[in-house]
Amino acid sequence: MKNMCVAHRGFSGKAPENTLAAVRMAIALPYVRWMEIDVQLSRDGVPVVIHDFSLDRTTNGHGKVKNMDWEQIRRLDAGSWKGRAFRGERVPSLDEVLSLASGRLRLNIELKTWGDLYPGLEQAVIELVNSKGMRDEVVLTSFDTTSLERVKEIDPRIRTGLIFDSRRGDPARKLQELDCSFLSISFDRLNPTLAALLAQREVKIMAWTVNKAKEMRRLAAMHSDIMICTNRPDIWGDTFLEV
Question: Which of 14, 51, 204, 232 is catalytic?
């Protein structure tokens, strides 16, 4: 089966998203080869793995990620909202997730930034990735084209990807302009023509967020190279590994 399974924020359908518990659950499934995570900066410059700009939805904390130091963030409970079994689960640092995933999962690391929201985010992430010898195991993606340009300026060897969720515009042209070899796109924005064109150009396509077997099969029929990003990698397994 060529349509690779990507665990969205880890196995977020069953574990609290973007936590080490979700990462471990994804790693435990042998057919999960990729994982998507989100990275922001704490006030004191530590790359932390969390999706929302606010702490309110997925932790027992309040306020913006950028306004809290790492020592404050790491003390928060990021698991209880998902269930009693995950009480005490923490917001992990990118360093922790890289260490756990190294040699086990490739990572699509979304740089959650816009404009000048997180000065130094790209530099901090790249330094961590390179310090662990994981340059070939990651792709750095973002909605923010300026952030992707910064990545290329800092280290042209790092693979970059554009996140695209617009009904307008030409993602294929934008990828060429940005020298990106990866497209992260909402599954309902993807069509056979675009998929075939990008595959011909050796651009990897990741479709998100696909949690129904019917949609997984539709994407697989569209093109065998489309990576399927899902909160439910178990459904991917039931769909494509049927005996």
Answer: 51
Q: Rg of the Cα trace of the chain?
A: 17
Query: Does residue 62 carry a catalytic annotation?
Result: no
What is the C-alpha to C-alpha distance for residues 32 and 4, in angstroms, rounded to an integer? 7
Catalytic pick from 4, 5, 8, 137?
8
75-123 per-position pLDDT tens digit: 999 999 999 999 999 999 999 999 999 999 999 999 999 999 999 999 9
**Are 120 and 142 contacting, i.e. CB atoms less than 8 angstroms apart?**
no
pLDDT at 242: 73
Domain 5-240 has CATH 3.30.450.40: no
User: ω into residue 209 within 30 of 0, thus cis?
Assistant: yes
Interatomic CA distance for residues 192 and 40, integer angstroms: 33
Break the chain into its structural domains and give their ranges: 5-240
Strand partners, 188: none
The region, left, alpha or beta by phi > 0 then psi within -120 to 50, assigned to residue 61 is beta
8 is catalytic: yes
pLDDT digits over 98-111, tens only? 999 999 999 999 99
Is the pLDDT at 6 greater than 70, yes or no?
yes
What distance in Å separates the CA atoms of residue 7 and residue 59, rounded to the nearest whole number? 21
The predicted structure's pLDDT at residue 167: 75
pTM above 0.70, yes or no: yes
